[in-house]
Amino acid sequence: MQRLSIESLPRAPMGRTFFLFAFLLATTLQTQAWAQASAPSVDPLVERREVSAWLNKIHRAAQMQNYVGTFVYQRGSTMRSSKISHFADKSNEYEELETLDGRQRRILRQNEDVYTLIPEQKTVFQEKRESKDSFPALLATPNRDVLDYYAPKVLPNERMAGFDCMVIELTPKDEYRFGYRLWADRNTGLLLRAQTLDAEGHLLEQAAFSQISIGVPSEKARIVHAIQATHGWHVIKPQITATRLSDAGWSIDVDKKVPGFKSVREVRRTMRSTVDGKPLEVQQVVYSDGMAGLSVFIEPATRERKEGHGNAGATNILIKRYGDFWLTLLGEVPQATLQQFASSIEYKQPAK
């Protein structure tokens, strides 16, 4: 099977997953060792409860705190920086994300409505937020206990971006997940740094704030005004409808092979074919174990593609032909996980 470069492949839409990626600072680019110096023994049940509470605190902080900062994302030799402003009241969230490198992009969000601005073209992409786990948020499904699949460990406190931080390490219990190391502000719980590590403890990617202010006055009116200022721009709304994969004849029975990953979203995307310009329907199902996520895309084989696999940092991709369809699997999981998912996909022509 051909080895592929992710950057050279057609980009399929997804969340975080599957998708705003977060961005890292490197005060050092050296990977820390996966194993830390031995510490006094801790009751595993007590440690698990403590870490579980912290993971949910981290997730809530990203939604409820007011903060403004600059964070950097590193994947391999690639580094990108962005500025984020986030404000919340009792029932609403307002967010602005602005790229600081390369072509200017500005993303505004009010609750679940996301607006991606392309100023030079006076164009705005308007869509619904696909996931709630973009940095500095964490859990895709906060009500699930992800520690069934990761062994938790509390490490010594460290300082990050001027804040005293709780440091947590999550070691995967099988080969189908990556490990994580997290730094969270001890006072508010806001995630200030996150690393993704492979089975040997090597750094795959990381995101971290280089500067951040927490508890700042709200500027939600500025974000609302910026959204309203796009009136008259060219608006593009992706055609996405909720669906069930089974209605189209597909099934993915992967739980026995890769336990813990559950379907969290199933949609049908109507896209324009690159071959003849006609509408092309792409099925997408998103899976998550709470921390890690992946997407499966299914499309008719109306264009020439090549089977293969590739990776960039923690993101792996697998492309396979299945009869008259192309399968694309993409996510922040090991390649072995994608292979197991691909081998679990079955299609039966639905009854008319």
Automatic annotation (TrEMBL):
Coiled coil: none annotated. CDD domains: RseB (cd16327). The keyword Signal applies. One of its GO terms (biological process) is regulation of polysaccharide biosynthetic process. Residues 248-346 form the MucB/RseB C-terminal domain. GO terms for molecular function: antisigma factor binding. The keyword Secreted does not apply. Residues 51-223 form the MucB/RseB N-terminal domain. Residues 1-35 form the signal peptide. Keywords: Periplasm, Signal. Gene3D superfamilies: Lipoprotein localisation LolA/LolB/LppX (2.50.20.10), MucB/RseB, C-terminal domain (3.30.200.100). It is found in: Periplasm. One of its GO terms (cellular component) is outer membrane-bounded periplasmic space. PANTHER family: PTHR38782, SIGMA-E FACTOR REGULATORY PROTEIN RSEB. Belongs to the RseB family. This is Sugar dehydratase. It comes from Pandoraea horticolens. The lineage of its organism: Bacteria, Pseudomonadati, Pseudomonadota, Betaproteobacteria, Burkholderiales.
